[in-house]
UniProtKB/TrEMBL annotation:
The keyword NAD does not apply. This is SET domain-containing protein. It comes from Riccia sorocarpa. It comes from the Eukaryota. SMART domains: TPR (SM00028). Gene3D superfamilies: SET domain, Tetratricopeptide repeat domain. SUPFAM superfamilies: SET domain (SSF82199), TPR-like (SSF48452). It holds the Pfam family SET. Keywords: TPR repeat. Residues 172-309 form the SET domain.
Amino acid sequence: MGRRRANSAGSSTSACEGLVRKGDAELTARDYEKALEYYSSALQVKPDDPSILSKRAQVFNLLEKYELALKDAEISLQLSGGQDRGTQFHLAQALYGMRCYQEASDALEKLRAMKSSRDSQRFPSNKRVRKLVELVERRLDEKLHGSYDLHSMLKQAKAMAAPFLDHADFVGPVRVAEVEGCLAMKVVERMIREPQTVAEVYSLFAGEHTPALQPHPAETHELPVDEVRVRNIVRHCSFQMETVTELWIPLSIPDDFEDNKSGLGLWILPSFINHSCLANARHYTIGDFMFVRAIRDLAEGEEVLISYVDPFLDHSVKKLQMLNFVCRCSLCSFAQEHPEVMEFRSALTWLFQRLRPRVRAADYSILPQLQQIIRSLRRTFNTLPHSSFSSGSALPPLELYSPLMGESSLHFLVGNFEQAVSPLLEVFEFLPRLDGIFSNSIARTDVAWRLRSIYKKLGNSKEMKKWTKRARDEFDVMIGKSDELWEKYVGDYAAAHEASIEDELDAFMSFMVHHLILSM
């Protein structure tokens, strides 16, 4: 009887070792799903084997199932006395994958303090450890200080077919408060793979006919993944991503730029931000990473607002209605209260559209007509408050933007550089920092840089220096501080405007018309 038990135990051990060897072979062949099957089968035979648990933790990490990897690594360390360096490394990797960067740093510090074991075949090379330490330090710097290399992130996004970037989230002094198809399946798959994301996703708005659900994080493992709820959340909370990995519209813009916008993404915290046509923040994506930047100083307790749509597009109201959202910003409120004024402005805008081909042809004879349109538009704003837009109580005369740009370009084309300055100064004075207006998020940067270029033609170095600084200041607010990206912007402008003295006027006109077209 005793011999039979011994044979049975030996047979089980042999079978377990065979399963582990097969798992090792599949791991080497990078078939991680099969390796997982073999290691899991081996653990059914020897559930308390720390070595097999460590191997499975490694596979879970490779499959991006970080919570399961963490669980296996923790159990393995408990069983082995907490001194296996390979398992400790898998633990740190799992914490990094779960974006628990401080905990990952602590795990690596503990790894550093461990005594090396010559018998440990699972200990990673020092190169891999150093690489993870470096990554953790970068993520902590990003998480604590918001220090991002935007230029490098853009290069990474361009080089990847599916631009999923590895960076930490930085959240400034904000809080969430109570205020008035394909992506869905990817979200569902991630919720199944990483159960800890269920509570985050379910906290988002899923439509007025779907009851709110805010599960406690400890309960998320028992919650089923509701595909219908997820689809509703994606419909109401997703953001559009751009396949063009630029932070501003390049001057060599293709005619089908709008068609280049494709793909949706779901970000948890930004999904709580409400819309305003006169937003105080802007958002943009680099790969799968979203930045939300304040574009003016915010008072304590002031709500952060972004623009869901370009308010000057015809479909903007309809799109907002589809999202069960009615904008009550001062622009929309004025439009509802004074439809006759908006109709008159639309008529004047249509007249300017009729003149646009002649602007392109540098027909200076249309200047009186253009100036009359500008005067008529100004009169529609005379009854509005005269307090500054930054206080939130005045409406910026946005409809004047394109006609004034056209007037400046006409003066420039005939060499009246002094006269070309005044319209641009007026535009810079009233044009607020807004995201999405005229499909251009850095319009103030453009205006300031154009003023700099005109003052260069006039030989006024003092004003040229002044407007160079203003352009850079506006750029840094809207995009972020990056010398490399600023140089790219300046080079983009120079390529369009300063190729040669002979064609500078044509290039400048092309640049102006480019923005006139965008604003229509």
